[in-house]
Write a structure and sequence with these properties.
The chain has about 375 residues and is mainly alpha-helical. It folds into two domains: about 5-240, Up-down Bundle (Rhopdopsin 7-helix transmembrane proteins), CATH 1.20.1070; about 270-380, Arc Repressor Mutant, subunit A, CATH 1.10.10. Helix content is about 75%, strand content about 0%. The chain is built from 16 helices and no strands.
């Protein structure tokens, strides 16, 4: 049992918050019908349900079985990472595309832990399980055993999985940014910048977990548990707050095959498309709607998103959001020149921007000056 009441309190305290947090979030998602049917919330729920039993197992192990310093190079510690890490990546995939991992990809992620577990069971049945070790030197003395190499393989596999999830997560984030730039004229409420912070925190968690694989110190284990709590809180709270603009009926362009949206492009007259597009943007001014999406324009033009995205890039050398906001800023410039005393907030609303910050950002980006500076320049010219 644990040596000293202080160690017992420290370990129990470090496990208390991740356990309570996980259980509360699971119950919260289960009792709200709308969340149970939402794919993004389901992905969170699946992750938490997969995470909980491993945490409970570690609590039983570290509080009621082992004495600190804890054994190092433990196989099941690495196995827990190999099994739970893919659920974090699945959540990122759902958030960025509304589609989770396919069956084949789940098989690919779980093939390594399955093979390692089967190998470990066979070796233990044949040779018997090695005694616990409490230092690297003790572990090196056991390297003649096949089970020791299974432990090393588990640790290395866990490191590779952590690095892969960070790299693939960043790739999914960048792809998501490109998709919403092609599909939406706004970013408020659909930004995924918090994913980068979450991936950074996950990498720190994985790195410290790797250190705890070599060190049985109570403080190291408790620190890992505390960061684990922050990671869960960030993942769940940001995920529940995020509004995914995509659905099973409106997928990102990167997830749509060309066969799904194939049209006879030979029969599409570019001049006719330009005329209809110009009418929508210059006569009807559809961009005045602050939450205009490419899907809205596609429906008005009677085409499909794949062709429309290529049409915009080829004929206007911009993505959908940049094109929409360029029309808005042109309108804003005209309003400023006609009435320099008009408040910036009113101009932002009149030109289809959802927020003043977004208006200022795009005005500065497309005119190289701020709206207030532009107003000042107009007044100076009038003197």
């Amino acid at each position: 049992m644990l040596n000293g009441s202080l160690d017992l309190f420290f370990v129990l305290f470090s496990y208390l918050f991740p356990l309570i947090t996980t259980v509360l979030f699971i119950l919260l998602i289960l009792v709200i019908p709308e969340w149970r049917s939402d794919k993004q919330k389901k992905a969170i729920l699946i992750f938490l349900i997969a995470w909980l039993p491993w945490m409970l197992a570690l609590v039983v192990w570290e509080v009621f079985v082992a004495d600190p310093p804890y054994p190092v190079f433990d196989f099941f510690f690495s196995l827990s990472g190999l099994i739970t890490f893919p659920f974090i990546y699945n959540y990122i995939v759902v958030v960025t595309s509304q589609r989770g991992l396919t069956f084949n990809k789940w098989i690919a992620w779980f093939s390594l832990p399955f093979l390692l577990l089967i190998s470990w069971i066979i070796i233990v049945l044949i040779q018997g399980e090695l005694p616990f070790v409490y230092s690297v030197s003790d572990f090196i003395a056991q390297l003649h055993s096949a089970e020791s190499w299974i432990r090393v393989a588990g640790f290395l596999g866990c490191c590779v999985y952590a690095i892969l999830i960070v790299i693939l997560g960043i790739k999914r984030y960048l792809m998501y940014k490109e998709n919403i730039a092609n599909d939406f004229s706004y970013t408020h409420s659909i930004s995924l910048n918090w994913i980068i912070y979450m991936l950074g925190l996950f990498f720190i968690f994985a790195a410290l977990s790797g250190i705890s694989f070599f060190a049985g110190d109570v403080f190291v284990h408790a620190t890992v548990n505390i960061i684990n709590t922050v990671l869960i809180l960030m993942l769940v709270c940001c995920g529940l707050r995020h509004q995914n603009p995509y659905s099973e009926y409106f997928l990102p362009l990167s997830d749509i095959s060309t066969e799904d949206t194939q049209i006879d492009e030979e029969n599409v007259e570019v001049s006719s498309m330009i005329k209809r597009f110009t009418n929508l943007f210059e006569q009807e001014k559809v961009w005045l709607h602050c939450e205009l999406s490419a899907e809205d324009v596609v429906r008005m033009l009677g085409t499909n998103r794949t062709y429309f995205s290529r049409f915009v890039k080829e004929h206007y050398a911009a993505n959908f959001r940049t094109l929409v906001n360029s029309y808005r800023i042109k309108e804003a410039v005209m309003l400023l020149e006609n009435n320099p005393n008009l408040p910036v907030s009113e101009i932002a609303i009149k030109t289809g921007f959802a927020s003043i910050s977004s208006f200022n950002l795009w005005f500065n980006k497309l005119t190289t000056v701020s709206p207030s500076q532009y107003k000042e320049n107009i007044k100076n010219k009038g003197i």
